[in-house]
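Exercise 7.
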Amino acid sequence: MFLQQFTTLLLENLPYIFLGVIILLFIVLLVFIKINMNLSRLANKYETLIKGANGGNLDDALIQNIKDISLIRDNLITLSSRIGKLEDFERMTIKKVGIVKFDAFDDISGKMSFALAILNERQDGFILSNICGRSDSRVYVKPLVAGQSPNNNLTNEEKMAIGQAEILKN
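Solution. The predicted structure, written as tokens, is:
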């Protein structure tokens, strides 16, 4: 009895069922086409990856990249060493300059005499002093270590030049 009712119901609605199955097959076909297009696109990307952009293969590209990285690492080590040497040299270069002009003698005006302090980062350098008189001019050089002259006493003008160099930090 149940089977007979089911068969009757099926036969009465056969065109609708057939139409539903056709629509469902059409949707499945569209999904299949979309998946196939995506798969095709992925396959092309994979093939490009394996072949490489310039036609080589992925293994060769990876080996070349490893060699390049090794070369870059070696260059970086060399450059780091050179930068260290340059930084050491840079600490020794002149960075601070101070000058004080003065009258060395009471009877001479115009501030023709001077004390010039030339220092590096560590306050090492020298003082160049010029003492002008009426008939002659004398130049003196005094070494500086940490802003002090180890062998000579500094004049007030020379100390002022060192102070000016420390302030200006040229």
